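Is this the right way to post structure tokens for a design question? Let me know if I should format differently. Anyway, here goes:
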């Protein structure tokens, strides 16, 4: 079973930036579209951005133009560069592989990384 370790979160002021990393325990993920998800208190986990094995990217409207997803298959790692952060971006961020209609390919989620945007 693939394990994920997310890192890079923290407290940042509105307008600030953070770069998140997600390291996978296996190179098996390199064959998959990978995605970053987030879950704010009281909300369901939602997909933020995804990147195919061919490095085509897709973004949800609320982050388009502010966030950039990338991957380094040599390191089994997916990144999320977040710029122009706003308080509504506050959430725990996770990675996994989007699969089918709202599902994910891997059952195991990492611990996530907390992003807090506040002045």
């Amino acid at each position: 079973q693939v394990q994920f370790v997310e890192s890079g979160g923290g407290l940042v002021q509105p307008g600030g930036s953070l770069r998140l990393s997600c390291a996978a325990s296996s190179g098996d993920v390199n064959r998959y579209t990978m995605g970053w998800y987030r879950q704010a208190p009281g909300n369901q986990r939602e997909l933020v951005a995804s990147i195919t094995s061919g490095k085509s990217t897709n973004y949800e409207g609320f982050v388009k133009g502010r966030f950039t997803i990338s991957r380094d298959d040599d390191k089994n790692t997916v990144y999320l560069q977040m710029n122009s952060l706003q308080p509504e971006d506050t959430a725990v961020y996770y990675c996994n592989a989007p699969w089918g209609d709202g599902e994910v390919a891997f059952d195991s989620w990492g611990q996530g990384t907390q992003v807090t945007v506040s002045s």
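Format looks fine. Someone answered above. Worth noting: The mean pLDDT is 96. Residues 92 and 114 are 4 Å apart (CA to CA).
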